[in-house]
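ugh ok fine here u go
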Amino acid sequence: MMFLLLVAFMLMVDEGGVAALDSEICKVTNCKRYGPPVRFPFWLKDQRCGYPDPGFQLSCSQNKQTILHLPRSVKMAVQYIDYEKQTIDVSGLDGETCLYQQLPSLNLSASPFKFFGELQNITLFNCSEKSDKDSYGVGACPIIALPPDTRNNFNLINCTKFVDISAVPRGFGFGISLQWSKPMCIECEAQGRSCRLKNVSTPPQTECYDNPKPSTQTGLPTKVKLIITGAILASFLILLTVIGLYYVYHQEKKNKESQGKIEKFLEDYKAFKPSRYSFADIKRITNEFKDKLGQGGYGTVFKEGFLMMFW
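structure:
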């Protein structure tokens, strides 16, 4: 029990130290092992460690996709984040075959992003003929997007015009790139440093800081060493406890045996009316046990004057 309590305490202290460090410098996180790294200005839901704009909040789906929530309930899967160029590449979620269906609902004016790359005006058509969709490369999506100068190249008899949309990235149906300009951390990234919020600043301001150097420590991790040290210390304390208990037991047994001998002596020689003396009296009478006459089954015999003392 003592061992378990000690190990638990050490783990709590160690985790507390990690938590304290993380509050100062946010850790790089991701939704899955090889997923896009999430760091400032982005932050995962419930982390609250990035730039204070809800547009930079990301989340993890059940299948561990990194999700970007855009205004008006548009969700897209994050494929790559370029922190040096301040761009983020997004595409449709797993199983979503028609990204164009979300385009009419997308409005970046309420987000920190803008489209990155070449833009064009398009018209969305709702079509039923698979051949037309396949010719434009959208596959099973019932929506096709056509620039104004290409409409005459397609058979749109079975298509219904949906909506005209201006300034849309080319290839939107396969994914797009978004760019943010605030916070501006390009200079920090160019220096090989990281970006974070200043401790106290209104409105929010950023600053560059040096990345923590990777540990060059060899051997076991610090936490493992602490656990091993705790186990050794706990084992030592348990050993001392066992030794102490054995010593107490041995002394009690010895005292009981000694008391038993005295009681037996008094019983065997009760006809001589033996008397009880305190240890101080016996020490004084025997002149501090200087004259030893011998030793028998009841103990050592000392002499003083005409008295013989058994001890």
